Amino acid sequence: MDFTDVSLTALRVFRAVAEQGTFTAAAASLGYTQPAVSRQIASVERAAGARLLERRRDGVRLTAAGRVVLRRAGAVLDQIDGAARELAGLPAQAGVVRVGWFPSAGAFVVPRALAALHRTDPAITVETREGSTPALVRALRAGSLDLALLAAAPPFRPPDAESPALGLETLTERGLRLAVPAAHPLARGDFVDVADLRGQRWIAGPTSGGDLLMGVWPGLDERPEIAHTARDWLAKLHLVAAGCGLTTVPAALAHAVPEGVRVLPVRGGPQEQRRLLLARPPRAPSEPAVRVAEALRAAALDGADLPRYGSTPPIR
Predict the structure, then answer these.
(1) Cα-flanking dihedrals φ and ψ of residue 229, to 5°?
(2) DSSP states of 224-270
(3) What pLDDT, in 10s, does the model give residues 58-93?
(4) Are residues 198 and 183 part of one domain?
(5) What is the percent of the chain with per-residue pLDDT over 90, rounded to a whole number?
(6) What is the pLDDT of residue 29?
(7) Is the dihedral of CA 76, 81, 85, 88 positive or negative?
(8) How many whole angstroms separate alpha carbon 263 and alpha carbon 246?
Protein backbone atom coordinates (compact mmCIF):
# COMPACT_ATOMS: atom_id res chain seq x y z
CA MET A 1 0.00 0.00 0.00
CA ASP A 2 1.66 3.22 -1.19
CA PHE A 3 -0.22 6.52 -1.53
CA THR A 4 2.83 8.67 -2.18
CA ASP A 5 2.09 8.89 -5.90
CA VAL A 6 -1.68 9.41 -5.64
CA SER A 7 -2.62 12.87 -6.89
CA LEU A 8 -5.04 15.23 -5.22
CA THR A 9 -7.06 15.09 -8.42
CA ALA A 10 -7.47 11.34 -8.02
CA LEU A 11 -8.63 11.79 -4.43
CA ARG A 12 -11.15 14.44 -5.48
CA VAL A 13 -12.45 12.16 -8.21
CA PHE A 14 -12.74 9.28 -5.74
CA ARG A 15 -14.73 11.46 -3.34
CA ALA A 16 -17.00 12.64 -6.19
CA VAL A 17 -17.74 9.06 -7.27
CA ALA A 18 -18.54 8.09 -3.68
CA GLU A 19 -20.89 11.05 -3.38
CA GLN A 20 -22.57 10.87 -6.79
CA GLY A 21 -23.00 7.10 -6.76
CA THR A 22 -21.99 6.52 -10.39
CA PHE A 23 -18.96 7.17 -12.60
CA THR A 24 -21.20 8.96 -15.10
CA ALA A 25 -22.66 11.39 -12.54
CA ALA A 26 -19.21 12.07 -11.06
CA ALA A 27 -17.79 12.78 -14.51
CA ALA A 28 -20.61 15.22 -15.24
CA SER A 29 -20.18 17.04 -11.93
CA LEU A 30 -16.41 17.40 -12.44
CA GLY A 31 -16.47 18.16 -16.14
CA TYR A 32 -14.41 15.04 -16.95
CA THR A 33 -15.00 12.20 -19.35
CA GLN A 34 -16.03 8.87 -17.88
CA PRO A 35 -12.78 7.15 -19.01
CA ALA A 36 -10.80 9.88 -17.21
CA VAL A 37 -12.76 9.21 -14.02
CA SER A 38 -12.15 5.46 -14.40
CA ARG A 39 -8.40 6.03 -14.75
CA GLN A 40 -8.24 8.16 -11.61
CA ILE A 41 -10.19 5.58 -9.61
CA ALA A 42 -7.89 2.83 -10.88
CA SER A 43 -4.87 4.79 -9.66
CA VAL A 44 -6.32 5.12 -6.15
CA GLU A 45 -7.21 1.42 -6.04
CA ARG A 46 -3.70 0.46 -7.18
CA ALA A 47 -2.20 2.57 -4.41
CA ALA A 48 -4.55 1.05 -1.84
CA GLY A 49 -3.89 -2.48 -3.04
CA ALA A 50 -7.59 -3.24 -2.67
CA ARG A 51 -10.93 -2.71 -4.34
CA LEU A 52 -12.45 0.48 -3.01
CA LEU A 53 -15.70 0.45 -4.98
CA GLU A 54 -18.15 -2.36 -5.58
CA ARG A 55 -19.53 -1.98 -9.10
CA ARG A 56 -23.24 -2.76 -9.27
CA ARG A 57 -25.97 -2.35 -11.86
CA ASP A 58 -27.42 0.64 -10.02
CA GLY A 59 -24.07 2.35 -9.46
CA VAL A 60 -21.18 1.90 -7.05
CA ARG A 61 -20.92 1.20 -3.35
CA LEU A 62 -17.93 1.72 -1.09
CA THR A 63 -16.20 -1.38 0.22
CA ALA A 64 -14.83 -1.49 3.77
CA ALA A 65 -11.44 -0.39 2.42
CA GLY A 66 -13.16 2.32 0.37
CA ARG A 67 -14.78 3.78 3.48
CA VAL A 68 -11.38 4.01 5.18
CA VAL A 69 -9.79 5.72 2.17
CA LEU A 70 -12.74 8.09 1.79
CA ARG A 71 -12.52 9.18 5.41
CA ARG A 72 -8.78 9.84 5.15
CA ALA A 73 -9.02 11.41 1.69
CA GLY A 74 -11.71 13.80 2.91
CA ALA A 75 -9.52 14.94 5.79
CA VAL A 76 -6.56 15.50 3.44
CA LEU A 77 -8.62 17.45 0.91
CA ASP A 78 -10.19 19.62 3.61
CA GLN A 79 -6.72 20.45 4.96
CA ILE A 80 -5.43 21.31 1.49
CA ASP A 81 -8.44 23.50 0.75
CA GLY A 82 -7.99 25.25 4.10
CA ALA A 83 -4.33 25.91 3.39
CA ALA A 84 -5.17 27.32 -0.04
CA ARG A 85 -7.68 29.73 1.49
CA GLU A 86 -5.22 30.82 4.17
CA LEU A 87 -2.46 31.45 1.63
CA ALA A 88 -4.87 33.45 -0.49
CA GLY A 89 -5.63 35.66 2.49
CA LEU A 90 -9.22 34.48 2.73
CA PRO A 91 -10.94 33.98 6.09
CA ALA A 92 -10.81 30.56 7.71
CA GLN A 93 -13.84 28.38 7.15
CA ALA A 94 -14.11 26.97 10.66
CA GLY A 95 -17.59 28.45 10.88
CA VAL A 96 -18.91 26.94 7.64
CA VAL A 97 -21.62 24.28 7.95
CA ARG A 98 -22.79 22.41 4.84
CA VAL A 99 -26.46 21.40 4.93
CA GLY A 100 -28.43 19.27 2.48
CA TRP A 101 -32.20 19.12 2.27
CA PHE A 102 -34.92 17.30 0.39
CA PRO A 103 -37.11 19.54 -1.80
CA SER A 104 -40.07 20.43 0.41
CA ALA A 105 -37.80 21.21 3.40
CA GLY A 106 -36.59 24.23 1.45
CA ALA A 107 -40.07 25.73 1.55
CA PHE A 108 -40.25 26.21 5.29
CA VAL A 109 -37.64 24.63 7.58
CA VAL A 110 -34.42 25.76 5.89
CA PRO A 111 -35.39 29.45 5.34
CA ARG A 112 -36.68 29.76 8.92
CA ALA A 113 -33.51 28.23 10.34
CA LEU A 114 -31.25 30.47 8.23
CA ALA A 115 -33.17 33.57 9.28
CA ALA A 116 -32.80 32.62 12.94
CA LEU A 117 -29.08 31.91 12.56
CA HIS A 118 -28.56 35.27 10.90
CA ARG A 119 -29.85 36.86 14.10
CA THR A 120 -28.24 34.58 16.70
CA ASP A 121 -25.04 33.33 15.05
CA PRO A 122 -24.03 35.73 12.27
CA ALA A 123 -20.44 34.37 12.25
CA ILE A 124 -21.64 30.96 11.04
CA THR A 125 -21.82 30.54 7.27
CA VAL A 126 -24.32 27.93 6.08
CA GLU A 127 -23.95 26.45 2.61
CA THR A 128 -26.98 24.47 1.42
CA ARG A 129 -27.98 22.24 -1.42
CA GLU A 130 -31.10 20.35 -2.41
CA GLY A 131 -31.04 16.65 -3.24
CA SER A 132 -32.85 13.34 -3.07
CA THR A 133 -32.51 11.33 0.13
CA PRO A 134 -30.11 8.77 -1.43
CA ALA A 135 -27.90 11.56 -2.81
CA LEU A 136 -27.83 13.39 0.53
CA VAL A 137 -26.91 10.19 2.37
CA ARG A 138 -24.01 9.59 -0.02
CA ALA A 139 -22.85 13.18 0.50
CA LEU A 140 -22.89 12.71 4.28
CA ARG A 141 -20.81 9.56 3.87
CA ALA A 142 -18.43 11.34 1.50
CA GLY A 143 -17.86 14.12 4.02
CA SER A 144 -19.18 16.88 1.75
CA LEU A 145 -22.18 17.56 4.00
CA ASP A 146 -22.22 18.15 7.74
CA LEU A 147 -25.98 17.87 8.22
CA ALA A 148 -28.92 16.80 6.08
CA LEU A 149 -32.69 16.98 6.36
CA LEU A 150 -34.15 13.70 5.12
CA ALA A 151 -37.69 12.49 4.52
CA ALA A 152 -38.67 9.04 5.78
CA ALA A 153 -41.74 6.89 5.17
CA PRO A 154 -42.91 3.68 6.90
CA PRO A 155 -41.45 1.22 7.82
CA PHE A 156 -38.84 3.86 8.77
CA ARG A 157 -35.70 1.87 8.04
CA PRO A 158 -32.25 3.51 8.36
CA PRO A 159 -31.40 5.52 5.22
CA ASP A 160 -28.51 3.16 4.42
CA ALA A 161 -26.96 -0.06 5.72
CA GLU A 162 -23.40 1.25 6.09
CA SER A 163 -21.45 1.02 9.33
CA PRO A 164 -20.97 2.98 11.48
CA ALA A 165 -24.52 4.27 11.31
CA LEU A 166 -25.32 7.89 10.57
CA GLY A 167 -26.48 10.01 13.50
CA LEU A 168 -30.26 10.37 13.11
CA GLU A 169 -32.79 12.48 14.97
CA THR A 170 -36.52 12.51 14.29
CA LEU A 171 -37.60 16.14 14.26
CA THR A 172 -41.28 15.69 13.44
CA GLU A 173 -43.74 12.96 12.50
CA ARG A 174 -46.89 14.07 10.74
CA GLY A 175 -49.56 12.67 8.51
CA LEU A 176 -49.39 12.89 4.74
CA ARG A 177 -52.13 15.01 3.12
CA LEU A 178 -53.80 15.25 -0.26
CA ALA A 179 -53.80 18.46 -2.33
CA VAL A 180 -57.00 18.79 -4.37
CA PRO A 181 -58.18 21.53 -6.77
CA ALA A 182 -60.69 23.70 -4.93
CA ALA A 183 -63.27 23.09 -7.67
CA HIS A 184 -62.80 19.30 -7.64
CA PRO A 185 -65.70 17.17 -6.32
CA LEU A 186 -63.35 15.66 -3.71
CA ALA A 187 -62.78 19.14 -2.23
CA ARG A 188 -66.37 19.46 -0.97
CA GLY A 189 -65.86 17.61 2.29
CA ASP A 190 -63.44 17.73 5.22
CA PHE A 191 -61.62 14.56 4.18
CA VAL A 192 -61.20 12.25 1.19
CA ASP A 193 -62.07 8.56 1.31
CA VAL A 194 -59.24 6.38 0.00
CA ALA A 195 -61.72 4.51 -2.23
CA ASP A 196 -62.43 7.76 -4.10
CA LEU A 197 -58.80 7.97 -5.22
CA ARG A 198 -59.30 5.24 -7.82
CA GLY A 199 -59.17 6.56 -11.37
CA GLN A 200 -57.79 9.97 -10.41
CA ARG A 201 -55.06 11.78 -12.35
CA TRP A 202 -51.85 12.50 -10.44
CA ILE A 203 -49.04 15.04 -10.43
CA ALA A 204 -45.86 13.32 -9.28
CA GLY A 205 -42.15 13.93 -9.01
CA PRO A 206 -39.75 12.05 -11.32
CA THR A 207 -38.31 8.96 -9.66
CA SER A 208 -34.55 8.54 -9.28
CA GLY A 209 -32.03 6.99 -6.94
CA GLY A 210 -34.54 4.71 -5.22
CA ASP A 211 -36.94 7.48 -4.23
CA LEU A 212 -40.63 6.70 -3.91
CA LEU A 213 -43.12 7.93 -6.51
CA MET A 214 -43.60 11.24 -4.73
CA GLY A 215 -47.00 12.81 -5.28
CA VAL A 216 -49.13 9.68 -5.65
CA TRP A 217 -51.04 8.45 -2.63
CA PRO A 218 -49.21 5.34 -1.34
CA GLY A 219 -50.75 1.89 -1.54
CA LEU A 220 -53.24 2.43 -4.36
CA ASP A 221 -54.48 -0.87 -5.75
CA GLU A 222 -54.15 0.28 -9.35
CA ARG A 223 -51.51 1.62 -11.69
CA PRO A 224 -51.75 5.40 -11.18
CA GLU A 225 -52.28 7.71 -14.14
CA ILE A 226 -49.46 10.27 -14.00
CA ALA A 227 -50.74 13.34 -15.82
CA HIS A 228 -47.76 15.59 -15.06
CA THR A 229 -44.31 15.23 -13.50
CA ALA A 230 -42.50 18.00 -11.64
CA ARG A 231 -39.67 17.85 -9.13
CA ASP A 232 -40.50 21.15 -7.44
CA TRP A 233 -43.28 20.84 -4.86
CA LEU A 234 -44.59 24.36 -5.52
CA ALA A 235 -44.87 23.65 -9.24
CA LYS A 236 -46.91 20.55 -8.43
CA LEU A 237 -49.25 22.57 -6.23
CA HIS A 238 -49.77 25.21 -8.91
CA LEU A 239 -50.65 22.42 -11.33
CA VAL A 240 -53.19 21.23 -8.77
CA ALA A 241 -54.60 24.77 -8.54
CA ALA A 242 -54.96 24.76 -12.33
CA GLY A 243 -57.11 21.62 -12.09
CA CYS A 244 -54.51 19.32 -13.66
CA GLY A 245 -54.68 16.56 -11.04
CA LEU A 246 -54.04 15.61 -7.42
CA THR A 247 -50.79 15.37 -5.48
CA THR A 248 -49.64 14.61 -1.96
CA VAL A 249 -48.19 17.22 0.37
CA PRO A 250 -46.57 17.06 3.82
CA ALA A 251 -48.89 18.32 6.54
CA ALA A 252 -46.31 20.94 7.53
CA LEU A 253 -46.77 22.69 4.18
CA ALA A 254 -50.56 22.85 4.27
CA HIS A 255 -50.44 26.53 5.25
CA ALA A 256 -48.22 27.42 2.29
CA VAL A 257 -50.33 26.13 -0.61
CA PRO A 258 -51.43 28.58 -3.31
CA GLU A 259 -55.01 29.75 -3.81
CA GLY A 260 -57.24 27.26 -5.53
CA VAL A 261 -55.96 24.26 -3.56
CA ARG A 262 -57.52 22.42 -0.61
CA VAL A 263 -55.35 20.18 1.57
CA LEU A 264 -57.30 17.31 3.11
CA PRO A 265 -56.63 14.15 5.14
CA VAL A 266 -57.33 10.77 3.56
CA ARG A 267 -59.39 8.21 5.47
CA GLY A 268 -60.10 4.53 4.99
CA GLY A 269 -56.54 3.26 4.50
CA PRO A 270 -53.49 2.79 6.68
CA GLN A 271 -52.14 5.86 8.45
CA GLU A 272 -49.60 7.52 6.16
CA GLN A 273 -47.03 9.13 8.41
CA ARG A 274 -43.90 10.96 7.28
CA ARG A 275 -40.86 11.77 9.40
CA LEU A 276 -38.50 14.67 9.03
CA LEU A 277 -35.04 13.45 10.01
CA LEU A 278 -31.89 15.39 10.81
CA ALA A 279 -28.87 13.32 9.86
CA ARG A 280 -25.13 13.77 10.39
CA PRO A 281 -22.00 11.70 9.72
CA PRO A 282 -20.93 9.23 12.43
CA ARG A 283 -18.21 11.56 13.71
CA ALA A 284 -18.86 14.11 16.44
CA PRO A 285 -20.24 17.37 15.01
CA SER A 286 -18.41 20.68 15.24
CA GLU A 287 -19.76 23.41 17.50
CA PRO A 288 -21.08 25.42 14.49
CA ALA A 289 -22.85 22.28 13.24
CA VAL A 290 -24.46 21.87 16.66
CA ARG A 291 -25.74 25.46 16.48
CA VAL A 292 -27.15 24.92 12.99
CA ALA A 293 -28.78 21.67 14.13
CA GLU A 294 -30.48 23.57 16.95
CA ALA A 295 -31.83 26.13 14.49
CA LEU A 296 -33.14 23.42 12.14
CA ARG A 297 -34.75 21.63 15.05
CA ALA A 298 -36.54 24.79 16.22
CA ALA A 299 -37.69 25.65 12.69
CA ALA A 300 -39.08 22.15 12.15
CA LEU A 301 -41.12 22.32 15.34
CA ASP A 302 -42.35 25.86 14.69
CA GLY A 303 -46.03 25.68 13.88
CA ALA A 304 -46.18 21.87 13.97
CA ASP A 305 -49.79 20.77 13.64
CA LEU A 306 -49.19 17.44 15.38
CA PRO A 307 -47.24 16.64 18.56
CA ARG A 308 -43.65 15.58 18.25
CA TYR A 309 -43.00 11.86 18.50
CA GLY A 310 -40.09 10.05 20.14
CA SER A 311 -36.65 10.41 18.61
CA THR A 312 -33.10 9.39 19.10
CA PRO A 313 -30.92 11.76 21.15
CA PRO A 314 -30.49 15.17 19.46
CA ILE A 315 -27.28 16.22 17.70
CA ARG A 316 -25.03 17.80 20.31
Answers:
(1) -120, 140
(2) -EEEEE-SSHHHHHHHHHTTS-BEEEEGGGGGGPPTTEEEE-EESS-
(3) 788 888 898 888 888 877 887 787 677 667 665 555
(4) yes
(5) 43
(6) 86
(7) positive
(8) 10
